[in-house]
Amino acid sequence: MYIAVSKIIPILILISFGFIINLKFKVPHDFISMLRKAIVSIALPAVLFTTFLDMEIKSEFLPLSLTVVLMFSFMYIAGFLLSKYRWFNTNLTPFFLTATGFGTIGIVLFLAMFGNDALFNFTVFGIGHEFFAWFIYIPMIHNYFNKQKFSMNVIKDFIKSPIILTIFLGVILNISGFSNAIVNSPLNFIWQGILETFNLLGNVITPVLLMIIGATLSLEKIYIKEALRLVILRLTVMLSIGYLFKILVFNNIVESSPLFNFAYFTLLILPPPYSSMVFIGEYESDENLSILSNGLAISTIVCLVIFIIAGIFHMSF
User: Fold this and answer.
1) What is the pTM of this model?
2) pLDDT at 151 > cutoff 90
3) Is the pLDDT of residue 8 over 90?
4) CA distances to 33, 73, 120, 280 from 53, in Å
5) Which CATH number fits the domain that encloses residue 43?
6) Is pLDDT of 2 > 60?
7) Among positive and negative, which fits the CA dihedral 119, 125, 131, 132?
8) What sign results for the dihedral spanned by CA atoms 22, 109, 164, 179?
9) Domain count, the chain
10) How far is CA 143 from the centre of its chain?
């Protein structure tokens, strides 16, 4: 119990630091966005590279990734159908009920709670999630609002994504046995220096992103009711469809462990991608963007509360 609480305290303190700093100094939103982008483009890929470099690549890796894509696609379909119902009749519904802040909050929470050695339990969902985000989620936003068809730019952006590049590079070097082969090479000291650099970059992720999460937690009273409705609906859909897939599919292709199960649960309670504000912002009204902004904030708060309570329970038993 005490060990679990000790893992939670740094998370709460760092998020509080971010919230207080923004409250006192009114940190410009553009600066926060730039800092988040830098971390996600540089430090996060470094962590993912070393994680996939060292993890045991199993035969179920590919079917697991494909199932993740299928699961999030079903969540999008559920959101699209529910958006026809008058209580959820908004353009935001289909895109609020699928995809997650996998890199911006998911990895940092799991890393803070369980450390680098256990991170592969969560990052194993990465390729499937990123494939869905780039090839389905983002194109569907453009198609939904602007009737814009799929373009080659989507493939180019996917290939150029630092997260995708480092995951694939880590997997390829892992399978090829590169790390073991270079140990006896005269160039090993360079390789070890690169890995140490990546480890140092990885140490930046947890404190900085947790403070960024705290700095972006702001609510507008007028939009809370509509946003809360979306958050409750999202959790209901994510957990229902998520555990339906867990029982019917994932349990048949992956050998579950307590950490894998907790990682899966974490994936399902995460807020929507923060980048949705950027992509949907091209088309939506200021009012709907305010609802989306509040929805992201409330969803983040709910995620943190659930994650902390579940984390204490998980580490206590």
Assistant:
1) 0.86
2) no
3) no
4) 29, 29, 10, 35
5) 1.20.1530
6) no
7) negative
8) positive
9) 1
10) 23
Among the residue ranges 49-63, 69-83, 248-262, the one predicted with the least confidence is 49-63
Alpha-carbon span 49 to 41, nearest angstrom = 12
Residue position matching structure tokens 């480890």: 199
Domain hosting residue 73, numbered range: 2-316
Q: How far is CA 182 from CA 3, 179, 190, in A?
A: 38, 5, 10
**What pLDDT, in 10s, does the model give residues 12-30?**
888 899 889 888 888 888 8
DSSP character string of the chain: -HHHHHHHHHHHHHHHHHHHHHHHH---HHHHHHHHHHIIIIIHHHHHHHHHHHS---TTHHHHHHHHHHHHHHHHHHHHHHTTSGGG-STTHHHHSS---IIIIIHHHHHHHH-GGGTHHHHTTHHHHHHHIIIIIHHHHHHHHH-PPP-HHHHHHHHH-HHHHHHHHHHHHHHHTHHHHHTTSTTHHHHHHHHHHHHHHHHHHHHHHHHHHHHT----GGGHHHHHHHHHHHHHHHHHHHHHHIIIIIHHHS---HHHHHHHHHHHHSPPPTTHHHHHHTTS-HHHHHHHHHHHHHHHHHHHHHHHHHHHHHHH-
Position of tokens 């009012």? Answer: 287
- Output the pLDDT for position 1: 52
